[in-house]
Design a protein that fits this description.
By secondary structure, the protein is an alpha/beta fold. About 45% of the residues lie in helices and about 10% in strands.
Length: about 350
C-alpha cells in the first residue's frame, strides 16, 4: 500500500496506518504462534501501529501481566523491524500482587505517580526488548495523583529518550483540557493523542462527539479509538432474536450492546455491505475513518483471516449517501430516547 494512506497522529511526528493492531487478545484468545502470524500479516499489508498495555493479558492471580508486550517484543526482535513500526503501550493498571491489593504500601504497582510511571516504563521496555516506546499512554485517570506529577514524570521519560510521545486513554474532555492546560502552563510534554471507546454502538459515543471530538479537532489531538466494532457486534455475527454465537464476548455483548436500535444499525451495515460488495465490519470502520479528528481505530483479530477481512476497510470508500444513512440510523439522540422510554 502506498505511503499516502498513512495518517499523522495529531501534531506529532508519528504517521500511522489507518487501522492500528490491538493486542489485548495476544496470549489470551490468540496463542503466541497465532499472534505472531497476525502481526506478520498486518505488517506485510503495510500496518505499522501496534497498540498494547502493560496489563495485557488482563492480570489475574498467577499472571502478572505483560504477556502481550513480551509477545510483541519477541516478534520485533526476531524480525529485526523495530524502526519500521510504531509501538504504543500504556501505564496505570495494577501489575501483579502489588497492584490494587497493595494500595498505600511501598509495594504498590499501579497508578500514575512518578515512582510507578518510571518503574513501569522501564519494565515495559524490557518486555518489549526495545530502547524506546513511540507512544506512551496513561491508560485511565488516577484520581490520587496530581496531573502535574504525572506529566512531569512522563516528560522525564521523554528527556531520557525512553519515550518519543505521550498520549492518554479514557479521559473525559475536561480531563484532557486540564492536562493540556497544565502542560502549557508548566512547560511539560503534552498529550498528542487520546484513545477513547468509540463506535457506532458505544454508550459514550454522544460524549465523544459533543465534547471530546471538538477538543481534538481544535487542539490537534490524534484519535485512536478502541473497540471500534462494538465488541464484535458490528461484524454482523449477532442476529436479532437468534441464539448467541460461540464467542468469548457473547454474554458481555448481550448485556451491554443488544437493543433494537443497535440491531437496526447492524442491519443497515449489512444492507450497505451488500450494495458495495463489502463486509459489515468494513463498512463500520470505513464510516469511522471519515469522522473528524480520526487517525486510526484500533482493531483486534484472533486469526489472520479475521485480520485480512478488517483490513479491507482501508480501501473502502463509502458514498456521502451511505455515510449519511449510517449516521442517521445510529444517531445518539435516538439512542437516548430509546433509553428514556
Amino acid at each position: 500500500m502506498s505511503d499516502t494512506i498513512y495518517r499523522r497522529l495529531g501534531r506529532s511526528g508519528l504517521h500511522l496506518f489507518p487501522l492500528g493492531l490491538g493486542s489485548m487478545q495476544f496470549g489470551w484468545s490468540a496463542d503466541e504462534a497465532t499472534s505472531q502470524q497476525i502481526m506478520d500479516a498486518y505488517h506485510e499489508a503495510g500496518g505499522n501501529f501496534f497498540d498494547t498495555a502493560d496489563i495485557y493479558t488482563i492480570w489475574t492471580p498467577g499472571n502478572p501481566g505483560g504477556v502481550s508486550e513480551e509477545i510483541i517484543g519477541r516478534w520485533m526482535k526476531a524480525r529485526g523491524n523495530r524502526n519500521d513500526v510504531v509501538v504504543a503501550t500504556k501505564v496505570r493498571g495494577p501489575m501483579g500482587e502489588g497492584g490494587s491489593q497493595g494500595r498505600g504500601t511501598v509495594h504498590q504497582r499501579e497508578g500514575l505517580s512518578r515512582r510507578w510511571i518510571i518503574q513501569a516504563c522501564e519494565d515495559s521496555l524490557k518486555r518489549l526488548q526495545t530502547d524506546y516506546i513511540d507512544l506512551y499512554q496513561t491508560h485511565f485517570i488516577d484520581p490520587h495523583t496530581p496531573i502535574e506529577e504525572t506529566l512531569s514524570a512522563l516528560s522525564e521519560l521523554v528527556r531520557r529518550g525512553y519515550v518519543r510521545y505521550i498520549g492518554c486513554s479514557n479521559y473525559s474532555a475536561w480531563r484532557l483540557m486540564q492536562a493540556l492546560w497544565t502542560s502549557d502552563r508548566r512547560g511539560l510534554e503534552a498529550f498528542v493523542s487520546i484513545q477513547p471507546e468509540y463506535s457506532l454502538l458505544s454508550p459514550t459515543r454522544a460524549n465523544f462527539e459533543r465534547e471530546l471530538m471538538p477538543v481534538c479537532a481544535e487542539y490537534g489531538i490524534g484519535v485512536v479509538p478502541w473497540s471500534p466494532l462494538g465488541g464484535g457486534v458490528l461484524t454482523g455475527k449477532y442476529k436479532r432474536g437468534s441464539p448467541l454465537p460461540d464467542s468469548i464476548r457473547a454474554d458481555e455483548n448481550a448485556r451491554r450492546r443488544f437493543s433494537e436500535r443497535n440491531f437496526d444499525v447492524v442491519e443497515k451495515l449489512k444492507e450497505i455491505a451488500d450494495q458495495t460488495g463489502a463486509k459489515p465490519a468494513q463498512v463500520a470502520l470505513a464510516w469511522m475513518l471519515e469522522q473528524p479528528a480520526m487517525t486510526a481505530p484500533i482493531i483486534g483479530a484472533n486469526s489472520v483471516a479475521q485480520l485480512q477481512e478488517l483490513l479491507g476497510a482501508v480501501t473502502l470508500k463509502l458514498s456521502a449517501e451511505h455515510l449519511a444513512e449510517i449516521s442517521r440510523v445510529s444517531d445518539w439522540e435516538r439512542a437516548r430516547t430509546e433509553l428514556e422510554n
